[in-house]
Specification:
Elements: H1 26-48, H2 56-65, H3 68-83, H4 87-108, H5 111-122, H6 131-147, H7 153-183, E1 186-188, H8 199-211, E2 218-220, H9 237-248, H10 260-276, H11 282-287, H12 295-327, H13 339-351, H14 364-380, E3 383-386, E4 397-403, E5 409-418, E6 428-433, E7 444-451, H15 464-482, H16 497-507, H17 514-520, H18 532-540, H19 546-563, H20 575-585, H21 603-606, H22 616-633, H23 639-648, H24 658-666, H25 673-678
Parallel strand pairs: 5-7
Antiparallel strand pairs: 1-2, 3-4, 4-5, 6-7
Helix pairs in contact: 1-2, 1-3, 1-4, 4-7, 5-6, 7-10, 12-13, 12-19, 14-15, 14-17, 15-16, 16-22, 19-20
């Protein structure tokens, strides 16, 4: 294959450098990666061979200029490997994983490069550097040191081997999970078994079954988290049980997709790597370079929240049991698969709200255009214009051009809404092109969700949870679009892991903000707005079921910490027993309130970037809840407020210490009281 025949080896001619996916084939990726690896290694070699003493320009900035081709190829590929992982793409991913790990180590652990970076770091106070340059020197030195650049050659060789093994295992974990999730999708023979679902949901189930050659059947695919949104609506208790059982058994059966041995080996190797780097555990290694700094700080927060959360969950369970005892002809003891269904009954009895009945007011296109985009325009002045002439990586992904208030071009936003067998579970944002003034690039970002696609002609009606997910992921997208930095190292959402969820969680506040909700929450057939009385009752339910929601989240966060506090010499041979012991330790081992992710399908930490970092959501929510209070105190949805948030937080990307940026925005450190109030955890 020649360079000319591989579309990945030349800059894209499409607007904003959007990869020319119409021309890219699976066989293009590995040759492009190999060429990109070689090119960056040559660029780094030219840095280390410079005979003059290290300077910011000939070392740090030169390193930032390196790897442009690799970034372009990697962004293009990893977008596809997560959202459209065909067997051909999976095969590429398996071959690529150890190669990418080896290449990253070849640069990060390069002794000659580290020597130059260290010398620039030592003289940084005497250099004429601006704030971003100074922070870049700090971060490059810190990250290389943290990664093991100061180790001797023998230790580096061992570290490189560990990193390659871990990369391969993480890839295996994700592949197994995708395969078993598809295999365990629940097949139903008739619509009567799915009594309680809407016509659109039944249509989506029929479409999913038909796509697998199961004409006349209905298929319910599984989301990433434990359970399913349909559990709140299904009247058939056996149908609920079947879905929950399938969800909780993913990648934990004795078959080729069993993730138990995979995750045990991941845990062992991560602990071994941490010890090699001088840390007592992987959790200690990870948090050392986050805002939390230590696992003890994380543990203090999780334990402080676990007890009141479990207390509230017990009270909620009693209320559910009372409904069952008082209404069911043959009462039974509440189980995990019953929780969502009877929670809606309690909600209806207490607040006169049936959230499943609200879906006709949450038509997806209206939520997108008149909710999400509308709020962004009011806050930041940005506008969105669909570009059907631009082809993304899959026909279901839509491309929008984004403009600033003055009409200047900002970037591209890609939305990939619907689930499919080739897409991994969950929802996420990632860059396809990262913004950098040094490279002259503008941002292209994508949001992926897993909403069931209804049949042709049927509207896509979202649940309130799906609306929340869409706004949340769009918060990440705005962070990626708004960050304006010189150096690619700081582009978009390249911030501390336990800070990255903060902007996305803040964006959720606009879902029920009066002028936003009134603009998008219209009945998809009649155009009627959502009844103001219902809206008031929705707001009154802010702490409703938060004992359950907080407990299941904290259980997962603690499970992540427990796995990654294991020492290198520990031998865990029973995954289920380890989970039970860890959850008992923190007081959250409740079979009726299972952890949001069990170990074998905990993709965030075993195949994603959240290992020992799943606590980040609640850690960031302290900042989020405090920021929501600030917006309420300062007039809410105004350009003045939006511009302040954009310029002082979103716009700096990773080019500034995040807590310093928060203080610049808020005028002080965040306080925890708003979070405790939001989740009903006050004494």
């Amino acid at each position: 294959m020649t360079d000319a025949s591989n579309p990945l080896l030349q800059p894209s001619s499409l607007p904003y450098g959007l990869p020319d996916y119409a021309r890219i084939r699976p066989e293009h990726y590995l040759p492009a990666f190999r060429a990109a690896f070689a090119e960056q290694l040559g660029e780094v070699a030219r840095i280390t061979m410079v005979r003059s003493m290290p300077t910011f320009e000939n070392t740090i900035e030169a390193l930032e200029r390196s790897g442009e081709l690799l970034d372009r190829v990697a962004h293009a590929f990893y977008t596809v490997s997560s959202a459209d992982a065909t067997p051909e793409i999976q095969a590429v991913d398996e071959q690529l994983a150890p190669l990418m790990a080896a290449h990253t180590d070849a640069i990060t652990l390069d002794g000659a490069l580290y020597w130059r970076v260290r010398l620039v770091h030592e003289q940084r106070d005497s250099l004429d550097l601006d704030a971003e340059q100074g922070y870049l020197v700090e971060r490059r030195f810190r990250e290389m040191t943290h990664a093991g650049a100061a180790l001797d050659d023998e230790a580096k060789a061992h570290l490189t081997l560990l990193n390659q093994q871990l990369s391969t295992l993480s890839n295996t974990f994700e592949r197994n999970l995708l395969n078993d999730t598809n295999d365990l999708a629940v097949v139903f023979d008739s619509a009567s078994e799915l009594d309680g679902l809407s016509a659109g949901e039944l249509s989506a189930a029929a479409r999913a079954a038909q796509s697998r050659g199961l004409d006349g059947k209905l298929l319910v695919s599984l989301p990433l988290f434990t359970g399913h949104p349909y559990l709140a609506q299904l009247r058939d208790r056996d149908a609920r049980r079947r879905i929950m059982d399938a969800s909780r058994s993913r990648a934990s059966r004795d078959n080729a997709d069993d993730n138990r041995p995979v995750l045990r080996e991941i845990v062992r190797l991560r602990a071994e790597r941490a010890a090699l780097l001088g840390y007592e555990s992987h959790a200690a290694y990870v948090t050392a370079d986050e805002t939390a700094k230590t696992p003890d700080a994380v543990e203090r927060m999780l334990r402080a929240l676990a007890a009141p959360s479990a207390r509230n969950a017990r009270a909620e369970r009693a209320a559910l049991q009372a409904i069952v005892d008082g209404t069911e002809p043959e009462p039974f003891e509440i189980e995990a698969h019953d929780w969502a269904f009877y929670t809606e009954r309690v909600r209806a009895a207490t607040y006169d709200i049936d959230t499943s009945a609200l879906r006709p007011w949450f038509e997806a296109e209206r939520v997108l255009q008149d909710g999400m985009f509308f709020a962004a325009t009011r806050l930041y002045g940005v506008t969105f214009q669909e570009r059907p002439d631009l082809t993304a990586y899959h026909p279901g992904a839509r491309v929008f051009e984004v403009f600033n208030a003055d009409g200047s071009a900002l970037g591209l936003y890609v939305l990939d809404l619907y689930t499919r067998d080739s897409k991994r579970g969950g929802a996420w944002m990632n860059p396809i092109v990262s913004q950098s003034r040094l490279r002259g690039t503008a941002p292209v970002v994508v949001n992926n969700l897993n909403v069931p696609e209804p049949g042709d002609g049927e509207p896509t009606l979202l649940t309130l949870d799906e609306v929340t997910t869409l706004f949340h992921e769009f918060g990440h997208a705005l962070h990626g679009l708004f960050a304006v930095v010189t150096y690619p190292h700081f582009s978009g959402t390249n911030v501390y892991r336990d800070f990255v969820e903060f902007p996305s969680q803040v964006n959720e506040m606009w879902i029920l903000w009066p002028e936003v909700l009134d603009n998008y929450a219209r009945h998809h057939e009649t155009g009627e707005p959502l009844d103001p009385a219902i809206v008031d009752r929705l707001r009154a339910t802010e702490t409703f079921d938060q004992g359950h929601a907080t407990s299941e989240y904290l259980a997962a966060a603690w499970l992540d910490q427990a796995w990654h506090r294991v020492g290198a010499d520990a031998d865990v041979d029973d995954v289920a027993a380890f989970e039970a012991a860890a959850l008992t330790d923190i007081g959250l081992n409740d079979p009726v309130v299972p952890t949001r992710y069990s170990s074998t399908y905990f993709a965030h930490v075993f195949s994603g970037g959240y290992s020992a970092g799943y606590y980040s959501y609640i850690w960031s929510e302290v900042l989020d809840a405090d920021t929501v209070d600030w917006f309420r105190e300062n007039g809410g949805l105004t350009r003045e407020n939006g511009d302040r948030f954009r310029n002082r937080l979103l716009g700096v990307g990773g080019s500034k210490d995040p807590l310093e940026a928060y203080r610049d925005f808020r005028g002080r450190d965040a306080e925890i009281a708003p979070l405790l109030k939001r989740r009903g955890l006050e004494d």
